[in-house]
Amino acid sequence: MPDTAKWLEQMRSAVGAKGFTTTVEDMVPWLTDWRGRYTGAAAAMVSPASTEETAAIVRIANENAVSIVPQGGNSGMVGGATPDTSGQSIILSLRRMNQIRAIRSDDQLVVCDAGVILQNLHEALAADGQRFPLTLGGKGSATVGGLVSTNAGGTQVLRHGTMRSLVAGIEAVLPDGSIYEGLSALKKDNRGYDLKQLFIGGEGTLGIVTAATLKTVPALVDRCVAWVAVGSTDAAYQLFRFLNGRVPQSLEGFEIIPQTCLESVLRHISGTRPPLAGGHPWHVLVEIVRDQPDTPDPKSIMEHLLADALERSLIEDATLAASEQQAEDFWKIRESIAEAERANGPALQHDISVPVHGMARFIDEASPVIEAKFPGTKVAAFGHMGDGNVHFHVKAPEGVEAQQWMRESAKQITPLVHDLVIAAGGSISAEHGIGQNKRAELERLSSGARLSMLRAIKMAIDPGNIMNPGKLVPLASGQSGS
Prior knowledge:
This protein has 5 domains: 3-93, Uridine Diphospho-n-acetylenolpyruvylglucosamine Reductase, domain 2 (2-Layer Sandwich); 100-218, Uridine Diphospho-n-acetylenolpyruvylglucosamine Reductase, domain 3, CATH 3.30.465.10; 222-337, Alpha-Beta Plaits (2-Layer Sandwich); 345-423, Alpha-Beta Plaits, CATH 3.30.70; 446-482, no CATH class. Helices cover 36% and strands 20% of the residues. It has 17 helices and 18 strands. The chain is globular, with a radius of gyration of 23 Å.
């Protein structure tokens, strides 16, 4: 048989008929990224059911110099799980590896396969009196492996941190097909580099995460969610400082939302309604929780703090969710912004971070710069203000042809946004990763030291560049895959 047919048959034998397809119709949903910006081709989609099957596939790929594109829920935002157009690579889907291996409540740990869907993990832990303190709008499709590989953030980073803080151990298949067994959640381990951190945020470029040991926390006793109106971004920041200074151990959410984004959600997302009467320039979604029954009631804490904030003229108005359903309704508004903005028209979306103390100033100063230089555009900045991370959307002028505007304007607008971010001491990727979407910008804006370290790590672990080539790491001229 020709070489391609030979290794394809070897892979089919390794995973069985259920885990293998070369039929284009079967692969089509997985060949385009969630945003619809990138579409590729693949020789096959392989779906192993175990770590051993994954290792077998990687060994075959390594022996035949076949590129592998790992994929979880295909809900990434930067094209990191989409193959190129050559049709020579394979998609390696982890979705069949969906078992929760162990819930260790006494240690507040859970061990699960990479293909476990985040929402399913939440439900399994809730039944055991625990929770995994990371959530995001795509929890119904996002997988543990994808969350690890992109160092996902979400709306609870303020208290619990990103995936880097929540991963206690990793199991991964390396580019040669060997298995890194690092699931033990040791409190102390001084055997050199923290190898698991190479895979967290590595976007599948160094190996394939097959399982993870994650930290859990006790299930919530109760929570209080408030919708707060403020007059400016600085007022929102001052409110954050005020609340975080008084209840840092129970403040779990602090999200800033402009009036324009609220209006967009109300217009496009069914079942939503304005939490407050009248219009206000900015809104803040605040969540205070308790997970121990002998601690103060979060509702009484919130009432007291917001009354004090009103007296200090930090806020214009506020309302507390009267029920768990209303709390979910408030959060639905926040989590639906991206969907509503898409329905509202084309926009260039930037996931950026700056130091927390400089976020209000960045929004106020960068937004008019962009709108003045590109007439007709409108900036919508929203998100995790307490983390110094907002989603900085630049919406197209009315009446433009969407795809043409996106292609042409991205070449001018995005570099300017990123230049302003770097000037403010920030990062061009806060929680979505680099993928293929930001690789050129990472190279343009990174120091020589950062680039040389990224490249050295990549080429040392994956010298054949078979692991998700073309993503994250901008290889130098002469290096494989550049």
